[in-house]
Amino acid sequence: MLQDIQEDIKRTFFTFLSTAPTKQQVEGFQKALSLGWAKTKTFFPGNPQIVSFVSAMDVAKYLGDAPISSGASTDYGFTLLTGFLNQKVFVFDDIPEGKVYSTAIENIVFANQQVSGNDLAKAFNLTVDQSNLIGVTHSVITSNATIETLAFQGSTLFAEISNGVVETTITEPAPETPETKS
After folding, report:
1. Contact 77, 28 (CB under 8 A)
2. Helix, strand or coil for residue 91?
3. 3-state DSSP assignment of residue 141
4. How far apart are CA 134 and CA 177, in angstroms?
5. What is the spatial distance between Cα 20 and Cα 37, in angstroms, rounded to a whole number?
6. 132: Cβ–Cβ under 8 A, 6 or more apart, which residues?
7. What number of helices (H) and strands (E) belong to the chain?
8. Which domains, from first to last, does the chain contain?
9. Averaged pLDDT score across all residues of the chain
10. In b/e form, how buried is each residue of 1-30, taking b as 16+ CB within 10 angstroms?
11. Which residue numbers in the chain have pLDDT < 70?
């Protein structure tokens, strides 16, 4: 149940990322990460740490087309790419395929209210998780021989500057025709 609540917090954040981003389209995953990183830097002064959220399917497609090598380009070049751009890349199934969301780490806000030690926790006799952000209680219902579970959480993730989130749509290259071949 805790994992379901945590997943819901992430899903809500990913939905928020797509509400009012700055949008651009590029061809290919590597360009999407690179230009998402570059565009994001235009919204934040200095040299902010950039974070990108990507789909597992997009990473798999990129890795599937990359040559296998060793050394500095471990992980088929994915480690080299993210290291070169000096950004953190998080891979989640909840990110839509074909989208890369980038923003500065400082733009991500985690607002929370601890559920331990407050009046709510005392009134409902909540047991809290190790983060003190999720509390649960169980009640025996004797009329139908069930146990009812009540869960509280008081946290959300959001981007403080919504247009400081860059949504880069990955487009596929146009198929080669006799006219486009060199």
Report:
1. no
2. strand
3. strand
4. 57
5. 17
6. 114, 115, 116, 117
7. 5, 10
8. 2-108+161-171 (3.30.2320.10), 114-153 (no CATH)
9. 85
10. eeeebbeebbeebbebbeeebbeeebebbb
11. 66-85, 180-182
Going by C-alpha positions, the residue among 157, 29, 158, 165 that lies closest to residue 99 is: 29
Residues 6+ apart with CB under 8 A from 158: 13, 16, 108, 109, 111
Residue 76 confidence (pLDDT): 45
Say what the pLDDT of residue 161 is. 93
* pLDDT value of residue 87: 81
Backbone angles phi, psi at 38, to 5 degrees: -65, -45
Percent of the chain with pLDDT over 70: 87
CA–CA distance, 99 with 18 (Å, rounded to integer): 10
3-state DSSP of 70-90? CHHHCHHHHHHHHHHHCEEEE
- Indicate the length of the chain as a whole number: 182
